[in-house]
Amino acid sequence: MMEKANLLLLDEPTNHLDLDSKEVLEAALIDYPGSILFVSHDRYFINKLATHILEMQPSKTTVYIGDYDYYVEKKKEEQELAELKESEKKVDNKPETTSKSNFEKDKQLKKEQRKKERRIQEIEEEIEQLEVDLEEIDQLLCDPEVFQDHEKALELTTKSDSLKQKVEFLMEEWESLHE
Predict the structure, then answer these.
(1) Which domains does the chain have, with CATH numbers?
(2) What average pLDDT does range 25-52 have in this prediction?
(3) Using CA atoms, how far apart are residues 174 and 89, in angstroms rounded to an integer?
(4) Which position among 19, 26, 70, 138 has the lowest Cβ density within 10 Å, counted as fewest Cβ atoms?
(5) Which UniProt keywords apply (predicted)?
(6) What's this model's pTM, rounded to 2 decimal places?
(7) In the chain, what percentage of residues exceed pLDDT 90?
C-alpha cells in the first residue's frame, strides 16, 4: 500500500489476525484509493469492504454488484426463479386446450421477441451513457478544486452513487431478459 499501487490482490487477509488487527486492516483498505481483489471466508470482512461479488463456477462466472448480504439475497431470488420455472415447465407439459392457431402463436412470440430485443438495446445504450456520466464525475472528483469543496464533492458522490444504483438495476433487468 505504501508503493501507491492501483490494485491489491489479497488471499484470506484476515485469517491469522486478532480483532484489533482486523479493524486496522479494514480501516486501511477502506481508505485505499485503488481496486482490491480479495478472497475471504470472513463474511463480516466481505460485507464491510466488497462492492462486487464474483462467483466462479466451472461453467460460468457471475458478478453481483453489492456486498455479501446482497449476494445472498440474489442467490435466494435465483433459486426461487428456478423453482418457478420448473413448476411452469410442468404446467406447460399438459396438453393445450386453447384454440389459437400455430400461426397466431408464432406471430405473438415473434412480436414479444422483437419487443424484448428492443428493450435490451435500450438498456445497453442507457448503461453506456450512465458509464460515460460516471467517468465524467470521477474525473471531476479528481480535480483539486472540486475535491477541496466538500459540498461539491458530496453532491458529485451522491450523484455517482445514484447512477451506480441505476446501472445495477438496469444490469439486473438486462440479465433477466437474457434468461
Answers:
(1) 1-69 (3.40.50.300), 106-178 (1.10.287)
(2) 89
(3) 23
(4) 19
(5) ATP-binding, Nucleotide-binding
(6) 0.46
(7) 24
- Per-residue cell: 39: 478472497
Question: DSSP E strands: which ranges in 20-166?
Answer: 35-39, 52-56, 61-65
Rounded CA separation 49/151 (Å): 25
Span 39-66, mean pLDDT? 90
Cell 402463436 appears where?
A: 105
Cell of 5: 499501487
Q: What pLDDT shows up at residue 161? A: 92
- Above 90 in pLDDT, residue 99? no
Contacts for 156-165: CB closer than 8 Å, 24+ residues apart:
160/134, 163/130, 163/133, 163/134, 163/137, 164/65, 164/134
pLDDT in tens, 141-158: 888 888 788 888 889 999
